[in-house]
């Protein structure tokens, strides 16, 4: 259990650092940075926990489950950004920020 909680914490910390940096590069205004952080606090642990569970119970479908989870996160984040922020191109931002953090995570 401690290993899982550590994995969740590291994943969230890395995601926050990467996506907040990406937001600044995207031109997100400082007043919208808390929205970026909050969206990731809401979606990242759920995605990581579900991916861990899929690894345990559906290892043969892990790639498909991961894709579905990431797509769901992009959809949820894009909807939140569109409604509660002034982020330019919120859906594209959600997709690109998630792709950036996911691919960086793979490289690490």
Helix and strand topology:
Layout: H1 2-26, H2 33-57, H3 62-84, H4 90-107
Helix pairs in contact: 1-2, 1-4, 2-3, 3-4
Order of helices and strands: HHHH
Binned, the helix content reads over 70%
Structural class: mainly alpha
**Count of helical regions:** 4
Distance between the termini: 23 Å
Computed Rg: 14 Å
Uncertain runs: none
How many beta-strand segments? Answer: 0
Give a quick account of the main beta sheet: strands, pairing sense, barrel closure. none
Percent of residues in β-strands: under 5%
Q: Which descriptor suits the 3D outline? A: globular
Integer average pLDDT:
96
Outline the structure in words:
This protein has 108 residues and is mainly alpha-helical. It is 84% helix and 0% strand. The chain contains 4 helices and no strands. Helix 2 runs antiparallel to helix 3. The longest helix is centred in the N-terminal third of the chain and has 25 residues, at 2-26. The two termini are 23 Å apart. The mean pLDDT is 96.
Top keywords for this entry?
108 residues
Gist?
The chain is 84% helix and 0% strand. It has 108 residues and is mainly α.
